[in-house]
Automatic annotation (TrEMBL):
The keyword Glycosyltransferase does not apply. Residues 34-63 are annotated as: Disordered. The lineage of its organism: Eukaryota, Fungi, Dikarya, Ascomycota, Pezizomycotina. InterPro entries: PPR/CCM1_RNA-binding, PPR_rpt, TPR-like_helical_dom_sf. This is Pentatricopeptide repeat domain-containing protein. The keyword Translocase does not apply. Keywords: Repeat. It comes from the Eukaryota.
Length: 865
């Protein structure tokens, strides 16, 4: 009888991988061979004889020996999660870890430790992927398994986590865009790396990116918001009362801060009892939760942050007000201990030895800015009438304020920024408590609360969700079907089916009259759970109830809901992925009940058809023609994206062939391809990241073949693509204008020439842009696009040409005043937003606005600058 064998975690993973796909096997085998340094200690004892591996014949384990090893089910979590990590969206993972089969002779390491070590090893090996992608994978796939461990992590897992965080820090520092600094600091803190050095390096990176890179207004806002979020996180680190609370600046009050500042154990010379507050004691008093002087690791990041916040070129007054608690304490130190405060500047950069170092050349670049900004920082902090001391931004118009909050919520949700959503909601909740006008504005705008309910459900922010529901009750805003639909949609997106079922049961018990949108969400949730039969049964019941109500003429009384094509579309996409046969049954049922498919139905089937074969693609195109369904922009996008996705940027010939095939299919289907649809097709190809120039040329060749004239919209598309490919040269833009006979401003529309002016300004040709600006003004077509004018103004100021910059500002003011007089002097929220554009900030900052020449009252709209 063959004795049982002890199998280590690496051998176990190898054996489990043999039962899987060759791709997974090769990926893990190569990783295991190259990452031999990650070896956890074995707790079980075994003899050398027992550690002999089973003999292998032709690469296959012997049957009788393999049968003695532990067996694993086909749903082993390591494979599900591995496929998710390696293959991204191509595979699904249930998220439910299944325990490994073990025997008394196997290693003492638990099954989850094996899985986690395996997953982390794979994730660490993915160094070429963007940092945000790796962090998202960690958040969704690995952190749920790590959470039960708390801070008691096994040595191999702890080692891999440190390596993962270190790699993320290094990649973020080297990358030109600081897109994941806050997230890295938060993940590091969560896994037990609570040293303040990592947030310090991330703060330096954010400040460096803000100061040394050319950023758009949106990018500056993102960097500023990331910076305030980062310091909020730092202030909450290692503070138990702040655990799981929304982000905020959890700093000491003035009294406690002054006491701690004076009670410092020594001066910079280390003399006990010295009353002189040093920069080190300033940091210790500011962040008392860091013991043994560890707060001093934050000195460089804090110094750079204070300088940046004091600079209105990079930070708005709104963000300065968000920083007010930190600025208040910093002003106490700078005002009362000015000589010691200057030591922060003299000692920059502070030499701190850590595994992740901020590059010396970037320290130097940032140091130049800090030294130039220091006098302005001191003046900024000592100004008793500074705007940041006035508290929250004044809500001169509650409705306009709510519109801004709504946009902030939307941006935070689009970026899946959970801390950002929590912060914005906390701000709204706090402001409405002390503002009757804001409460009234919220009551008159219930759609904002519905949107907040939706995003808090979608992001699993249970605290904010419950608080939002309570706020609606306090404000006497009823929970409508639209609110409940938003809840179900959010929970469906995050796959929280338990809450969907609970809400649906409550609605049915309460006999709430339902409508089409909420039924659509319910049916889509059934499909997502794989309950196709239940979904079709419910649809059939809805149709039967509707038919009965129509026959008995009791539609209003019964509350019957007529099944619609929207319901079918919500079900058909998931059904196609699970069971194409069931999808055909569903479409047949819809046809038999008079529910006609629309363009969305055909587009859903068309995208799926690309995965089944060219015959199905041809069939759906014929079906669209037979049903008289005209293709829309989505159809073109699907056709071209799916065709180009089969190729890569390294094979332009294949991309050209794909474009030709798309147009051949459209031509064969006898669709009327008008210039507008050709322009949409061109936009679909030109805006794709991996589309080659040959693919774009292929689309243009089809236009010429069909005698379609290249219109200004198409040239605008090509200019935008050229600018994305080469943002440092205006020559390609000029070549396009000459090629398509639009070199003169008499040709082309206003949008085209505003793009041309913006392109010239961005690429360093301000006087070419100025010439076009003057030509359009002389032709009675003055430029009104503030994003375009903003870039032109920046370019002229960079050249030091204040005279022409002032002329631009005066011209824009004149045209705006003239338009306002013609309109009758009426203003609205959009008008106020026009005056708050960054263009006017640049104008005021560079003394290009003359108060004497501004019409009465208009200067008040931009006085917040």
């Amino acid at each position: 009888m063959i004795p049982p064998r002890v199998v280590c975690w690496r051998c176990t993973s190898r054996l489990r991988t043999q039962a899987r796909q060759p791709v997974a096997k090769l990926a893990y085998s190569s990783l295991a061979d190259t990452d031999s340094k990650i070896q956890p200690a074995h707790t079980s004892q075994s003899t050398p004889k027992q550690r002999i591996r089973p003999r292998i014949r032709d690469g296959t384990p012997e049957t009788n020996r393999a049968s003695l090893l532990p067996t694993y089910g086909s749903d082993a979590p390591a494979y599900d999660m591995f496929n998710q990590i390696v293959n991204g969206r191509k595979s699904e993972w249930t998220g439910k870890p299944a325990a490994l089969s073990t025997s008394p002779e196997t290693s003492g390491m638990r099954a989850h430790e094996i899985d986690l070590t395996f997953l982390l090893s794979t994730l660490v090996a993915r160094r070429t992927e963007p940092v945000m992608t790796r962090l998202k994978t960690f958040e969704e796939s690995i952190w749920p398994l790590l959470r039960p461990y708390g801070t008691d992590l096994p040595a191999p897992i702890s080692h891999l986590l440190h390596e993962f965080i270190k790699d993320a820090c290094v990649d973020s520092i080297q990358n030109s865009r600081a897109t994941a600094c806050r997230e890295i600091a938060q993940v590091a803190d969560r896994v037990g790396m609570k040293q303040p050095h990592i947030p310090n390096v991330m703060a330096l990176k954010l400040c460096h990116a803000c100061v040394t890179s050319k950023n758009t207004t949106a990018q500056r806002k993102f960097l500023a918001q990331s910076l305030i979020d980062l310091w909020m996180h730092v202030s909450q680190m290692q503070r138990l009362p702040e655990k799981d609370r929304p982000l905020r600046l959890a700093l000491p009050d003035k009294v406690d801060f002054k006491v701690a500042l004076r009670a410092s154990p020594g001066s910079r010379d280390g003399v006990p009892g010295d009353r002189i507050a040093t920069p080190e004691s300033f940091l210790d008093a500011l962040f008392p939760q860091f013991k043994d002087g560890r707060a001093r690791d934050l000195m460089d990041g804090l110094l750079a942050t204070l300088c940046l916040v004091s600079d209105p070129r990079f930070v708005t007054e709104h963000v300065q007000r968000d920083f007010a608690p930190l600025l208040e304490l910093a002003s106490i130190f700078v005002n009362e201990h000015s000589q010691q405060a200057e030591l922060m500047l003299q000692q920059y950069p502070h030499q701190v030895s850590h595994a992740v170092a901020f590059p010396s050349e970037k320290f130097d670049e940032l140091g130049v800015y800090i030294r130039n900004q220091w006098p302005l920082l001191v003046q900024f902090l000592n100004n008793k009438k500074a705007a940041w001391r006035q508290g929250s931004a004044p809500a001169d118009d509650s409705k306009a304020s709510l519109a801004q909050i709504h946009r902030r919520f939307r941006r935070a949700y689009e970026g899946r920024n959970k801390p950002g959503v929590s912060t914005i909601f906390a701000e709204l909740h706090e402001r409405q408590a002390s503002s009757p006008d804001l409460r009234s504005a919220i009551q008159s705008r219930p759609e904002l609360m519905d949107f907040i309910i939706f995003i808090t459900c979608a992001l699993r922010l249970d605290y904010e969700y419950k608080t939002a529901v309570e706020l609606m009750k306090e404000l006497h805003i009823p929970l409508t079907l639209k609110t409940y639909t938003g809840m179900m949609h959010g929970w469906r997106l995050c796959k929280d089916f338990r809450k969907i079922d609970a809400l649906w049961n409550q609605l049915q018990v309460a006999n709430v009259r339902l409508d089409v949108p909420i039924w659509t969400e319910r049916l889509a949730a059934y499909i997502l759970k794989g309950k196709i039969g239940v979904c079709m049964t419910e649809l059939a019941k809805l149709q039967a109830d509707w038919n009965a109500a129509v026959e008995n003429k009791t539609v209003e009384e019964s509350g019957a809901v007529q099944p619609s094509i929207e319901m079918v579309n919500a079900c058909i996409k998931g059904t196609l992925e699970i069971s194409p046969r069931s999808a055909k049954v569903l479409l047949s049922w819809a046809h038999n009940n008079g529910i006609k498919p629309d363009i969305s139905t055909h587009n859903i089937i068309l995208r799926h058809a690309f995965g089944t074969g060219p015959e199905d693609v041809a069939w759906i195109m014929d079906l669209m023609e037979k049903n008289g369904i005209e293709p829309n922009q989505a159809t073109f996008v699907i056709l071209i994206e799916e065709m180009l996705s089969l190729t890569g940027p390294e094979s332009p010939e294949a991309q050209v062939e794909a474009v030709d095939q798309v147009f051949a299919e459209l031509s064969r289907s006898k669709f009327a391809l008008n210039p507008e649809l050709y322009a949409k097709a061109l936009h679909a190809v030109a805006s794709m990241a991996n589309a080659s120039n040959a693919a774009v040329d292929a689309v243009l060749a089809h236009l010429r073949h069909q005698n379609v004239r290249i219109n200004p919209y198409m040239v605008t598309i090509l200019i935008e693509r050229s600018l994305q490919r080469d943002p440092h040269s205006f020559a390609p833009v000029e070549a396009l204008l000459h090629k398509y006979d639009m070199a003169d401003t008499s040709r082309g529309d206003q949008t085209l020439w505003e793009r041309v002016i913006r392109a010239a300004a961005i690429t360093g040709e301000p006087y070419v842009a100025l010439k076009r600006f003057d030509e359009l003004a002389a032709a009675g077509r003055p430029v009104t696009s503030l994003p375009c004018l903003n870039e032109l103004l920046r370019a002229l100021l960079a050249e030091g040409d204040a005279a022409n910059a002032r002329r631009i500002v005066d011209s824009v003011l004149h045209n705006k005043m003239l338009a306002q007089v013609q309109r009758g002097g009426e203003t609205d929220v959009d008008e106020a937003r026009f005056w708050k554009h960054h263009f006017w900030y640049l104008a005021k900052e560079n003394n290009l606005l003359d108060d004497a020449n501004m019409p009465g009252g208009l200067h008040k709209l931009i006085e917040h600058y």
